[in-house]
Write the structure tokens for this entry.
Amino acid sequence: MCKTHASNKDHYEPGLYEIRLKGHLDGKWAAWFEGLTITLEEDGDTLLTGPVIDQAALHGLLKKVRDLGMPLVSVSPLEPDPPTTLPLRGLRGTGQADVSNIKS
């Protein structure tokens, strides 16, 4: 008997997704897509953007879209925003020490 196990690389990592729909989604559906940002685009599309915990949750969202009867345009994973790097305290961002507080 041969047993096989999925490797760690086969497991789904939670991430951010953008689901694009053809047409504008009415505001009354916002609670149905709780946790997602709903953006009505000028071109008539609706973007549902936000975190999706796993593949089952993604499929659940897609079932909701299907049940709405709105055409699905795309589903795209998004790269998380890089962390904001702030300059170290006392530096002006030029690589030089801030000398304005030094008294002679």
Summary: Residues 13-78 form a domain with the Alpha-Beta Plaits fold (CATH 3.30.70). Residues 93-104 have pLDDT under 50 and may be disordered.
